[in-house]
């Protein structure tokens, strides 16, 4: 990557409080190797677990022979579906809990790579060698390899995703201009650099889990329920996470196996998912397809939109990758119809990957809008501005804030869009065809609750303590900034402790909501701590302010003084010494009164049942963006290089523009990989993803990434969060792939409707 | 990965003797060997470490040509001033191979010996059928995912691509592979799969690569390596071409031409038909493009790799025109 230019709008503060461009406070630890990740804990007496994957994709295991594995050097334990581990079913994400026992290993095989056994040995090498000796006999049945398998069929309608208003079919039939296309996205994977896995260790009936986690409390609950333990008996520790992207928010079967083995053996067990297993131990993004028909009047006003989407799911689980997630929100259209289907195939159950639903959804609608612009002969930016939705077309509610017009205008201006020559193949440089494309994106504001503890120490330092997590997005830093601002201390006087389920509660780090949730909680707790400190300063017999006559005090830069500065002024440390206090602790949560009890807290911290939809309340709340992309396509080779990106975002107020920009750019970079490179290649006969390693599953390298310019056009959104921010983590990827596909069309005249846009699709 | 014994060789001769033991394997940079051992593809009983041996990592370039010791690192060779000046295609092929980290570890001998990236070859647990790994077991790539597989030099037994870049440049430039007592022309060093895809090189037990030599020539001096792939770095070639060209003093008639293809064949693929069609002719874009189609004469498509038949000649043409200065 070359120089990254950044424009700032609407964020004046460069100070150390909220809105300041503070560098990541955990950055140094990570760069110097000082941050200990979950799988790096070297516990005494540690043993190693290795999973044995199924090599068939469908059928039933009839026998499993573990004798050779058990006899192999160093082997301590082999678990198979025959072993009842005595586990109980845990609750789902929403807190619903079915009766019955939980078996992490089962003989019914529904996907290639499904674990059928686990081997625990003294060393990783011994466990690996022994795992290859486990002999499985199965009755194989014919697998459905993926969405494209002719036997997969049309799938089953998901009733609650059917959305319609007006008369879409009739309106489409009546319009003068229409376009129709089918858009497809393949299986995509998180490929986090830190692999999944955990170390589990027991002390009596207390279980400690070191595991990378986007949700310490929710995952701790699963472990507690599996083992029939009180919630407090499980501690899940996850201070650093080497990439999550949605894949580390659930306790998984391998966690249950490791913890159960540790219990049986009376020794800690470490289970690390291997790189190939990261394609099967949990699900990536489901493959999708969607048919979209758009109809417009000749002046470019949308009249009808029909959307028929489908995504693959597994044979045993339901994953909805809603390709209709963005479709109804983007444009004002009087006649609309969207339906979505689920197609069960023999895969691991897919999961959440950065902007689930919204991302493939935007690929469909934003490609189709480009096709419509071309059919109408209208500039694609102009078409989008023309059809701007003044309120949420689906819920009918007003937007809380929507600076999408501003994003389109500011992005176009910075990109130089007005110099675009509209005809495809009209811009070139030697063998290189040049294309410019645009697409918009959106991501909902999801609200939830959080809790934080603020401690003021006698040395004047402030601690922020929460079980929330930081997977690189900057939680440590923005919470320090929030506490610093609310308390009136410099950021470097704030220490933040995160990533431990025994600490105060937090919602899942998912849905781009954690920053909004936790800045709210920390702001509240820190403001209360400030009040408490001031009350002590005014009332404590040993305080110098006792006789000052002031009825409040000011705290700034760690100094307490009378508001007009005419009385004493001392540091927080000095005040603590004078009043003889070691530590002041204040814990606050953001729960409404009705939920401020034990049951409510448990629900809020360990389930997703209290998450609030973007339209819950009087407004419809979303982040918005517009991406402008230049591509260079070699006309002989079909290779696409993204040479320029300018993206403008409305994410409300930015708590730390520097970190926000890196979230946006990260999303854009991932979007470039999605557009051009990423695809799980499925062997049609064995239903196995064969490029299950980092050499063959291609993600973008530095060389693939050009200058990226990001622009903020947001205004504080008081409805979205306490401090006025909207989500920033996921919106950045939404719309990147269609912007690139649209640019490729502009460059070459070829419309690629299935990702990724590899060279053979263009030669 | 199963247990193996590790032996640090005292000399090249000792290493060669030790390598005659059953299931013994030489270890140089280890970037292929360890990878394949982890996949369960190679299961050496003895690993004979040669990486530290002295005197095998020389790089010398003089008027006669280049001498590159088998243990020279990819990054060193790529960066060598003599190689860059006299054999630019070799340097360019190396720079575009793998990643900087791998190039810093990997050796020239090991690089020639790298194995195919055929996904089925690398996954023995799920795909037992692979003639290269288990002779006679069948070929899982036929009828499977074969976007990266070969269109040239294939047989009913195996369609795996030779993935390396360096060997393609060496093949165009008529390099020799030195195996201690004897030397083999590089084009003879790599074998076609035929009915024995497990046998990839003309190297016998008791032999190891000690060095590579490349004869100097005007065509070598005016050579280039063009690699095409979806990702801009750290990816094997979808197709590539190494080209060396010498023009007559008129500056447009082709006196000498060398063309080899990578990423499309079961071995580094010399395209003599293209060379013959253009030698003595004017370097003219249309003629070059037409002649380049001969590069894929007899190509076979297996479904996923169909595009290579169209792509490879375009790369050959561009590389010839680039090298000749007519692009
Ligand atoms: C992710 C990835 C991407 C890659 N991308 C590319 C690419 O784009 N282009 C490319 O060309 N290559 C690529 N490579 C391959 C890389 O160049 C080779 O792995 C490397 O050159 C091997 O050299 P080494 O010294 O590490 O060999 P080793 O792993 O030590 O040995 C490889 C084999 O050669 C044998 N051997 C080693 N030395 C000798 C000798 N002197 N005589 C006889 N036999 C010997 C060994 O026994 C072993 O079988 C890539 C590799 C990886 C892992
Ligand atoms: S192409 Fe060759 S290496 Fe690949 S599966 Fe077939 S026989 Fe094995």
UniProtKB/TrEMBL annotation, chain A:
GO molecular function: iron ion binding; oxidoreductase activity
Taxonomic superkingdom: Bacteria
Keyword flag DNA repair: no
Biased composition (Basic and acidic residues): 1-12
This protein's UniProt keywords: Molybdenum, Oxidoreductase
Keyword Translocase recorded: no
Residue ranges of domain Aldehyde oxidase/xanthine dehydrogenase a/b hammerhead in the record: 32-142
Region described as Disordered: 1-21
Xref: PANTHER family: ALDEHYDE OXIDASE 1-RELATED (PTHR11908:SF132), XANTHINE DEHYDROGENASE (PTHR11908)
Protein name: Oxidoreductase
The organism of origin for this protein: Paramesorhizobium deserti
UniProtKB/TrEMBL annotation, chain B:
Domain FAD-binding PCMH-type: 1-219
SMART domains given in the database record: CO_deh_flav_C
GO MF, one example: FAD binding
Keyword annotations: FAD, Flavoprotein
PROSITE patterns xref list: FAD_PCMH (PS51387)
UniProt key word Flavoprotein: yes
Entry keyword annotation includes Acetylation: no
InterPro entries from the UniProt entry: CO_DH_flav_C, CO_DH_flav_C_dom_sf, Diverse_Substr_Oxidored, FAD-bd_PCMH, FAD-bd_PCMH-like_sf, FAD-bd_PCMH_sub1, FAD-bd_PCMH_sub2, Mopterin_DH_FAD-bd
Domain of life, per lineage: Bacteria
Name of the protein in its database record: FAD-binding molybdopterin dehydrogenase
Organism: Paramesorhizobium deserti
Organism lineage string: Bacteria, Pseudomonadati, Pseudomonadota, Alphaproteobacteria, Hyphomicrobiales
């Amino acid at each position: 990557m070359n120089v990254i230019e950044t424009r700032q709008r609407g964020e004046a503060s460069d100070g150390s409080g909220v809105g300041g461009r503070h560098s990541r406070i955990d950055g140094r630890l990570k760069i110097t190797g000082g941050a200990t990740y979950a799988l790096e804990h070297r516990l005494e007496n540690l043993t190693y677990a290795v999973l044995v994957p199924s090599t068939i994709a469908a059928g039933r295991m009839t026998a499993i022979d573990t004798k050779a594995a058990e006899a192999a050097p160093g082997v301590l334990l082999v678990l198979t579906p025959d072993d009842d581990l005595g586990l109980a079913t845990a609750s789902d994400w929403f807190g619903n809990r079915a009766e019955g026992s939980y078996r992490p290993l089962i003989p019914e095989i529904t996907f290639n790579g499904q674990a059928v056994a686990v081997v625990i040995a003294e060393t990783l090498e011994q466990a690996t060698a022994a795992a290859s000796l486990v002999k499985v006999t199965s009755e194989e049945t014919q697998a459905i390899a993926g969405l494209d398998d002719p036997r997969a069929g049309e799938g089953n309608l998901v009733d609650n995703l059917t959305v319609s208003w007006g008369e879409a079919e009739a309106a489409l039939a009546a319009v003068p201009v229409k376009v129709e296309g089918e858009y497809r996205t393949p299986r995509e994977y998180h490929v986090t650099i830190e692999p999944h896995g955990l170390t589990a260790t027991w002390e009596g009936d207390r279980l400690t889990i070191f595991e990378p986690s986007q949700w310490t409390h929710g995952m701790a609950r699963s472990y507690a329920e599996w083992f029939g333990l009180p919630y407090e008996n499980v501690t899940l520790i996850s201070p650093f996470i080497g990439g999550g992207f949605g894949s580390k928010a659930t306790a998984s079967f391998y966690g249950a196996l490791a913890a159960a083995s540790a219990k049986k053996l009376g020794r800690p067990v470490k289970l690390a998912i291997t790189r190939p297993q990261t394609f099967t131990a949990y699900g990536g993004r489901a493959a999708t397809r969607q048919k979209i028909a758009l109809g417009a009047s000749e002046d470019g006003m949308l009249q009808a939109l029909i959307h028929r989407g489908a995504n693959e799911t597994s044979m045993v689980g339901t994953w909805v990758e809603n390709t209709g997630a963005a479709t109804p929100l983007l444009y004002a259209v009087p006649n609309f119809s969207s339906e979505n289907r689920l197609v069960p195939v023999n895969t691991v159950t897919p999961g959440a990957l950065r902007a689930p639903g919204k991302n493939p959804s935007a690929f469909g609608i934003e490609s189709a809008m480009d096709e419509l612009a071309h059919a109408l002969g209208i500039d694609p930016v102009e078409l989008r501005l023309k059809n701007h939705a003044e309120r949420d077309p689906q819920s009918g509610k007003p937007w809380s804030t929507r600076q999408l017009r501003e994003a389109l205008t500011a992005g176009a201006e910075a990109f130089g869009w007005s110099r675009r020559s509209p005809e495809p193949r009209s811009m070139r440089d030697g063998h290189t065809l040049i294309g410019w494309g645009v697409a918009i994106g959106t991501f909902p504001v999801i609200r939830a609750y959080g809790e934080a503890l603020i401690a003021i120490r006698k040395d004047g330092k402030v601690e922020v303590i929460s079980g929330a997590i930081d997977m690189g997005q900057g939680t440590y830093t923005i919470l320090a900034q929030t506490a610093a601002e609310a308390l009136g201390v410099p950021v470097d006087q704030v220490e933040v402790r995160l990533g431990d389920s025994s600490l105060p509660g937090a919602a899942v780090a998912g849905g781009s909501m954690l920053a909004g949730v936790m800045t709210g909680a920390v702001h509240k707790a820190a403001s209360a701590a400030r009040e408490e400190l001031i009350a002590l300063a005014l009332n404590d017999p040993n305080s110098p302010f006792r006789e000052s006559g002031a009825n409040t005090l000011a705290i700034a830069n760690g100094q307490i003084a009378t508001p007009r500065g005419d009385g004493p002024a001392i540091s927080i440390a000095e005040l603590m010494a004078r009043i003889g206090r070691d530590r002041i602790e204040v814990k606050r949560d953001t729960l409404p009164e009705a939920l401020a009890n034990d049951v409510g807290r448990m629900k809020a911290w360990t389930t997703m049942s209290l998450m609030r939809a973007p339209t819950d309340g009087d407004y419809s709340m979303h982040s918005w963006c517009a991406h402008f992309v230049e591509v260079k396509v070699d006309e002989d080779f079909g290779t696409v290089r993204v040479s320029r990106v300018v993206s403008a975002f409305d994410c409300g107020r930015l708590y730390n523009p520097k970190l926000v920009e890196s979230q946006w750019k990260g999303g854009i970079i991932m979007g470039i990989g999605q557009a051009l490179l990423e695809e799980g290649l499925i062997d049609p006969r064995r239903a196995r993803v064969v490029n299950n390693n980092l050499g063959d599953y291609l993600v973008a390298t530095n060389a693939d990434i050009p200058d990226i310019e990001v622009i903020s056009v947001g205004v504080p959104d008081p409805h979205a969060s306490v401090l006025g921010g909207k989500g920033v983590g996921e919106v950045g990827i939404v719309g990147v792939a269609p912007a690139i596909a649209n640019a490729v069309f502009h460059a070459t005249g070829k419309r690629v409707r299935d990702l990724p846009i590899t060279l053979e699709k263009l030669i | 990965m199963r247990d193996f014994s590790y032996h640090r060789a005292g000399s090249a001769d000792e290493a060669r003797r030790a390598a005659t033991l059953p299931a013994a394997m030489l270890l140089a940079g280890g970037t292929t060997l360890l990878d394949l051992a982890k996949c369960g593809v190679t299961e050496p009983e003895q690993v004979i470490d040669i990486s530290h041996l002295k005197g095998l990592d020389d790089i010398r370039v003089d008027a006669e040509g280049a001498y590159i010791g088998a243990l020279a690192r990819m990054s060193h060779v790529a960066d060598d001033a003599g190689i860059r000046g006299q054999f630019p295609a070799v340097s360019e092929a190396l720079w575009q191979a793998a990643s900087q980290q791998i190039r810093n570890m990997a050796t020239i001998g090991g690089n020639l010996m790298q194995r195919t990236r055929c996904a089925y070859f690398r996954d023995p647990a799920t795909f037992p059928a692979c003639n290269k790994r288990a002779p006679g077991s069948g070929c899982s790539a036929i009828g499977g995912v074969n976007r990266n597989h070969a269109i040239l030099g294939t047989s009913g037994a195996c369609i795996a691509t030779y993935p390396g870049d360096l060997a393609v440049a060496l093949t165009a430039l008529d390099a020799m592979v030195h195996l201690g007592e004897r030397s083999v022309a590089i084009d003879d060093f790599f074998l076609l799969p035929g009915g024995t895809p497990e046998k990839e090189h003309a190297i016998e037990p008791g032999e190891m690569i000690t060095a590579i030599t490349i004869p100097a020539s005007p065509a070598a001096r005016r050579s280039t390596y063009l690699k095409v792939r979806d990702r801009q770095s750290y990816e094997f070639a979808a197709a590539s071409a190494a080209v060396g060209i010498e023009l007559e003093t008129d500056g447009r008639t082709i006196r000498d031409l060398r063309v080899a293809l990578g990423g499309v064949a079961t071995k580094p693929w010399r395209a003599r038909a293209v060379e013959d069609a253009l030698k003595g002719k004017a370097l003219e874009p249309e003629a070059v493009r037409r002649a380049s189609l001969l590069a894929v004469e007899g190509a076979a498509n297996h479904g996923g790799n169909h595009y290579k038949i169209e792509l490879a000649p375009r790369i050959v043409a561009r590389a010839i025109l680039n090298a000749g200065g007519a692009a």
